[in-house]
Design goal:
The complex is a heterodimer of chains A (308) and B (509). Chain A is mainly α. The longest helix of chain A is centred in the N-terminal third of the chain and has 29 residues. The radius of gyration of chain A is 20 Å and the shape is globular. Chain B is α/β, with parallel strands linked by helices and 509 residues long. Helices cover 32% and strands 24% of the residues of chain B. Chain B contains 17 helices and 21 strands. Chain B has a 6-stranded mixed beta sheet with strand order 7-8-9-4-10-11, with helices on both faces. A 6-stranded mixed beta sheet of chain B has the order 17-18-19-14-20-21, sandwiched between helices. In chain B, β10 and β11 form a beta hairpin. In chain B, α14 runs parallel beside α15. Chain B is globular and about 75 Å long. Chain B starts with 10 loop residues before the first strand and ends with a helix. Classes of the chains: A mainly alpha (308), B alpha/beta (509). At the A-B interface, α7 and α8 of A face α3 of B.
Chain lengths: 308, 509
């Protein structure tokens, strides 16, 4: 069949498809960050974890031929980065934000160093499910070709939302994040809980990185991440530390990120570069709109170093 | 599940001693709290009360001494051991997790919590447990949204839920209104009378001790200085046990107020956002005359802190005016200096000091950049700062190892003395004070109150915000009550009744 011209309808459709495609790393990084921040710590290093995850996933997928082993490698690498962050932060007078920035630079640098040989070869992609097969229109098919990781991310968001209220571990993470004194009085060690929460958060960020290099854009380059790891932190605040909110906010950011390419695809030739900046502008607007000199954030975990 | 309403247990210490290096925090203290009794532990800050209870609860390992529970000798190596024996502690600050609901707080504090919590089952069990409690509480509300009295009840309920029948209450009423305090202690008293609970309460408030306790023990400087039945002791005897025979600064007698005195501070239709940003404070009309102390009572969190912050220039206002001697006042340094406005905020180390700067520098904050005639100087003289501070340290009896130690190394009372020295030196037309004696010991409290009264008698207009009603009743000429961000009640001191003030504080009018 010839390409069907669906005119301006292409823009929302491409944005929907783009939102699903672009949002997946946001979903994983922000869910990981939500777990970490709910435990009372901020890991700004997730940008570095994301890039390193992308590199290690790609490298392992190239060498073994299996994208799933690549995904596992990315999760493990992310776990190590998270645990490293959590371990350093347990020492007194260590600032989690400063360590996060250091680890962000360290992670990207290390990924570039090890990733050089993998820029050329191509790795197998993670599978996607064609939910759009019922339609004859290729744009619809393209938009509804949904990667499994997106579905897993959605399920994970619902699970975390449930788990924060209904499981022992979920409550413990919230207790530690809200009041270290209360946690100690219960015989919990806040540092251990935060170490594990940061580790899990790192692993999820690593998975987000694997999605970047193994599905979309689908190759390893040094410019693979455009700050998704950092924006995800802003997104967690925007979502008020609620996993379902993280999912919705990730879709919103993904849609904003898809605006530029979508306009380009329907033939807007001028100024679409401006729309590539949409996610960053959205980040700025959200930060300004949610900040206030005279009140504290509602719903913020009490132990976070930015809200104390 | 725990939480069975077992019988009260008794506890006893024999020769409890705790040394930190060469310092003896607790020397040979033996107290006996029989099952079902209500025992009060009296003492000043640093007298060893908290050291004693921490030894009993397993937070400290005493240097020597034994612990008996129900007459049997027990070894308590950790708080977990104490908890297993049925001993629990309710702290002065709340240990509930604010963003969790009451039910979540109770369940998560249990020893064994299932991996996945079946809330339907837990709620049913909790409802059953609550039926046997004299306290009534909403358990599905976030703890952050409970009133202080409700939080305190929940703390006590938590201990009972965990099956602890011997409770140490550490100044349990310090954040409660008089009405709430009566209610909470009354219910606890009822449970001890029924033989369900034994209580050891740390307290400063004699009237509470007299109303609710069976026996007292007093500590001073780590030693037991007296014990006995409450019915046999007067307040004077209890005070003597607590503080010995050291001199207490006497309050100046109140100079008669001049009815036509100038109104120094005038606040009109002041509006400002509170810290949540959801509500705002709204001071319709307030005037403070020269030579009077106007006290503002209220439960913490009703906007007093925000009001003070507006007056101190720490918080922007949405509207309204603040006038000092007829001139608009925006709390700039120049205005404060020109109008002689002085400020003693609560938690002085945090709000009125630079903790890591030296004592001398902190004392000189108001004066370091001007010379003797009030003209700005271009070079700051370290020598002038030193001699100025040395004089004030001497005059206000600030105990510090040296003028160049960081002010954070001083004790709470001495930090407050240093701030008072800075704020009360020179001419004072308006003095704004908030909770000046919070957490200080007897002699420091008496001295600080005497200084405030002296400033009043010298003609300063004093605005005093305090959560301690006794303090307000002692110092104020008029008392206003702040509730929900507004001034809701005013009474001259002669007609002030604790009952009425308490009701207005709780918002019952």
């Amino acid at each position: 069949m010839e390409t069907t011209d669906i005119g301006l309808w292409g823009v929302p459709l491409a944005m929907l498809g783009g939102a699903i495609r672009v949002s997946t790393p946001f979903i994983f990084v922000s869910l990981g960050e939500a777990i970490t921040e709910r435990s009372g710590r901020i890991n700004l290093g997730l940008e570095g974890t994301l890039v390193f995850g992308a590199m290690s996933a790609y490298a392992v997928a190239v060498m073994t031929g299996s994208p799933w082993l690549g995904l596992l490698a990315a999760a493990l690498a992310g776990l190590c980065f998270g645990l490293f962050h959590g371990w350093i932060c347990k020492f007194p007078k260590v600032n989690d934000i400063a360590i996060g920035i250091a680890l962000m630079l360290f992670g990207t640098g290390l990924a570039f160093f090890f990733g050089k040989p993998f820029i050329q070869p191509s790795a197998p992609d993670l599978p996607a499910i064609p939910f759009g097969a019922w339609s004859d229109i290729p744009q619809v098919q393209a938009a509804l070709n949904v990667n499994v990781l997106f579905l897993i991310g959605g399920a994970l968001a619902v699970f975390l939302w449930w788990a924060f209220r209904n499981t022992h571990i979920g409550l413990i993470v919230r207790v530690v994040g809200d009041s270290a004194d209360a946690a100690r009085a219960m015989g919990l060690n806040p540092n251990t809980v935060r170490l594990l929460a940061t580790g899990v958060g790192g692993a999820l960020a690593g998975i987000g990185g694997a999605y970047l290099s193994l599905y979309y854009p689908g190759s390893w380059t040094e410019r693979i991440s455009s700050g998704q790891g950092l924006m995800a932190v802003a997104l967690v605040i925007f979502a008020r530390w609620n996993p379902l909110g993280c999912f919705a906010a990730a879709l919103l950011f993904g849609g904003a990120g898809a605006l530029g390419p979508a306009l380009q695809s329907v033939g807007v030739t001028q100024g679409y570069y401006l729309f590539y900046a949409a996610p960053y502008i959205l980040t700025l607007i959200i930060m300004i709109a949610t900040s206030s000199p005279s009140r504290t954030l509602a719903g913020a975990p009490g132990e976070l170093s930015i809200t104390k | 599940m725990s939480g069975t309403q077992g019988k009260a247990i008794g506890a006893e210490t024999i020769g409890m001693t705790m040394r930190f290096g060469a310092f003896t925090a607790l020397g040979d203290v033996s107290i006996k709290v029989p099952a079902g009794s209500f025992h009060a532990l009296l003492g000043e800050n640093g007298a060893g009360k908290s050291t004693l209870v921490k030894c009993m609860m397993g937070f400290y390992h005493p240097t020597s001494g034994d612990m008996l529970v129900d007459g049997r000798q027990v070894a308590i190596a950790s708080p977990r051991d104490a908890s297993a024996l049925g001993l629990g502690m309710v702290y002065q600050h709340f240990t509930l997790v604010p963003s969790l609901t009451g039910a979540e707080n109770l369940v998560i504090s249990r020893e064994k919590v299932p991996g996945v919590i079946d809330w339907r089952k837990e709620r049913a069990a909790l409802a059953q447990f609550m039926e046997r409690m004299p306290f009534k509480l909403p358990l599905d509300v976030k703890v952050a949204e409970l009133a202080a009295g409700e939080k305190q009840k929940l703390e006590i309920i938590k201990q009972l839920y965990l099956g602890r029948n011997f409770l140490v209450l550490d100044e349990p009423t310090s954040v409660l209104t008089p009405g709430e305090a009566q209610e909470v202690l009354g219910l606890v008293r009822g449970m001890t009378k029924a033989g369900d609970l034994t209580v050891l309460m740390i307290s400063h408030k004699f009237h509470e001790v007299t109303a609710f306790a069976d026996d007292i023990t007093a500590l001073r400087k780590g030693r037991l200085t007296g014990t006995g039945k409450v019915s046999d002791l007067s307040h004077r005897e209890m005070a003597a046990m607590m503080i010995g025979d050291q001199p207490i600064a006497a309050l100046d007698s109140r100079a008669a107020p001049k009815p036509g005195a100038e109104i120094v501070l005038k606040v009109k239709a002041l509006k400002a956002p509170d810290r949540t940003g959801l509500k705002s404070i709204d001071i319709a009309d307030l005037g403070v005359r020269s030579g009077e102390i106007v006290g503002i009572a209220g439960i913490s969190g009703n906007g007093q802190k925000e009001f003070l912050e507006v007056l101190a220039g720490q918080r922007p206002r949405n509207g309204g005016e603040v006038m000092v001697r007829g001139a608009a006042y925006a709390a700039t340094r120049a205005e404060a200096r020109a109008l002689n406005v002085r400020l003693i905020p609560e938690e002085p180390l945090k709000n009125a000091c630079a903790p890591r700067m030296t004592v001398a520098e902190n004392i000189a904050f108001r004066t370091f950049d001007v010379d003797g005639n009030g003209k700005p100087v271009s070079w700051i003289s370290a020598g002038a700062i030193k001699s100025f501070s040395a004089r004030l340290v001497e005059q206000f009896k600030v105990k510090t190892t040296s003028l160049s130690s960081p002010i954070a190394s001083l004790s709470g009372g001495n930090v407050q003395r240093a701030v008072l020295a800075r704020e009360l030196t020179g001419e004072v037309d308006l003095l704004i004070v908030s909770n000046p004696c919070f957490g200080l010991d007897f002699s420091a409290v008496a001295e600080i109150r005497a200084r405030i009264m002296k400033a009043r008698n010298a003609g300063a207009a004093v605005l005093l915000m305090s959560e301690d009603l006794d303090e307000l009743l002692e110092l104020s000429d008029r008392i206003l009550v702040m509730s929900d961000g507004a001034l809701v009640y005013e009474t001259p001191i002669a007609q002030a009744s604790v009952q009425t003030i308490g009701e207005h504080m709780a918002g019952h009018h």
